[in-house]
């Protein structure tokens, strides 16, 4: 999917920033929100705000070979921008060959979502428990679609330090913040 590779570097992982855009505003939410049906309205708002005709989602980790071997499918889809809010849950919850363990919501560790306009993209990493929206619009209407977006510092404190998993090292958190500041990206929240 060319538009995904134009928007993000599929080989990059946090704390490096995968976005290829030279400027933009970052909005951050918890990974679990971005991979569930509640993110459909957020994506629909991004589509409507940027005039996208379609949206592409690609699972970058685990690898496509994992899905082909285990489920006979490729973990990617491109769908029309209209009606995305209602369709998103069905797409991420699809169980290839009726096997729930192949659904993107359960297996995707790294995902990229990109609008056809090239004006926005979403990067999500389960190990960081972060999903990052990069857009050229500050304070976009997607921020009021029911998914809680928070400032980057709050995301690093609340999402990457939970009691139930291994916290991220302070050096990685600091590198993430430094990378955002060096790029000059602001936080939209």
Key terms:
189 residues, 7-stranded mixed sheet
Mean pLDDT: 91
Number of alpha- plus pi-helical segments: 8
User: Which blocks of ≥5 consecutive residues have pLDDT under 50?
Assistant: none
> What general outline do the C-alpha atoms trace?
globular
Distance between the termini: 30 Å
Oligomer class = single chain
**Major β-sheet annotation:** 7 strands, mixed
H-E order = HEHHEHEHHEEEHHE
Beta percentage is 15-25%
Order of adjacent strands in the largest pleated sheet = 3-2-4-5-6-1-7
State the helical fraction.
Answer: 25-40%
Give the beta-strand count. Answer: 7
Radius of gyration (Å): 16 Å
Helix/strand class:
alpha+beta
What does the secondary structure layout of this molecule look like, with pairings?
Blueprint: H1 2-7, E1 25-30, H2 31-34, H3 40-50, E2 54-61, H4 64-71, E3 76-80, H5 84-93, H6 104-107, E4 110-115, E5 120-125, E6 130-135, H7 152-158, H8 170-183, E7 186-187
Parallel strand pairs: 1-7
Antiparallel strand pairs: 1-6, 2-3, 2-4, 4-5, 5-6
Helix pairs in contact: 3-5
Descriptive notes:
The chain is of the alpha+beta class and 189 residues long. It contains eight helices and seven strands; from the N terminus they run H-E-H-H-E-H-E-H-H-E-E-E-H-H-E. It has helices spanning 2-7, 31-34, 40-50, 64-71, 84-93, 104-107, 152-158, 170-183; strands spanning 25-30, 54-61, 76-80, 110-115, 120-125, 130-135, 186-187. Strands 3-2-4-5-6-1-7 form a seven-stranded mixed beta sheet. The longest helix has 14 residues, at 170-183. It is globular, with a radius of gyration of 16 Å. The model has no long low-confidence stretch (mean pLDDT 91).
């Amino acid at each position: 999917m060319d538009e995904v590779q134009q928007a993000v570097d599929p080989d990059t992982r946090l704390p490096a920033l995968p976005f290829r855009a030279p400027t933009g505003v970052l909005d951050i939410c918890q990974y679990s929100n971005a991979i569930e049906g509640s993110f459909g309205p957020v994506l629909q708002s991004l589509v409507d705000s940027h005039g996208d005709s379609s949206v592409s989602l690609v699972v970058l980790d685990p690898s496509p070979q994992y899905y082909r071997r285990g489920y006979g499918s490729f973990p990617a889809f491109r769908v029309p921008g209209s009606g995305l809010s209602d369709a998103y849950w069905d797409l991420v919850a699809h169980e290839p060959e009726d096997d729930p363990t192949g659904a993107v919501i359960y297996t995707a560790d790294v995902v990229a979502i990109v609008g056809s306009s090239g004006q926005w993209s979403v990067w999500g990493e389960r190990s960081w428990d972060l999903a990052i929206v990069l857009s050229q619009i500050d304070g976009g209407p997607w921020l009021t679609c029911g998914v809680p977006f928070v400032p980057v510092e709050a995301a690093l404190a609340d999402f990457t330090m939970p009691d139930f998993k291994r916290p991220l090292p302070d050096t990685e958190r600091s590198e993430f913040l430094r990378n955002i500041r060096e790029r000059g990206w602001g936080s939209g929240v």
